[in-house]
User: Which sequence fits this backbone?
């Protein structure tokens, strides 16, 4: 796979969430949502149509937002985690925006 910076950030984000202490009842949810982000980015990257790519990237973004909420509920406020979260969030948003711009009009 060629360089895919957003995927690299998502993998780093997943590894970081594995080290964060969250309440037991949220751990499984965080693990699933955090792993969903890079997995969906990888799946979307394999799609040929821009419409399919955008849809799967949006799923990754939804999982990312779920992680943000879990971290917020858990009271996690670490400068490194916050910076990584902001960077990944903006990268995901720009990725979706750029793919949607390439898709034929009226395809969404």
Assistant:
């Amino acid at each position: 796979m060629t360089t895919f910076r957003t995927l690299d950030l998502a993998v780093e984000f997943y590894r970081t969430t594995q080290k964060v202490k969250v309440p037991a009842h949220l751990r499984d949810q965080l693990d699933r949502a955090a792993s969903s982000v890079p997995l969906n980015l990888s799946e979307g990257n394999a799609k040929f149509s821009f419409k399919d790519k955008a849809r799967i990237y949006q799923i990754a973004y939804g999982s990312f937002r779920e992680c943000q909420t879990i971290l917020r509920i858990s009271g996690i406020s670490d400068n490194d985690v916050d910076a990584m979260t902001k960077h990944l969030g903006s990268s995901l948003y720009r990725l979706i925006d750029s793919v949607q711009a390439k898709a034929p009009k009226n395809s969404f």
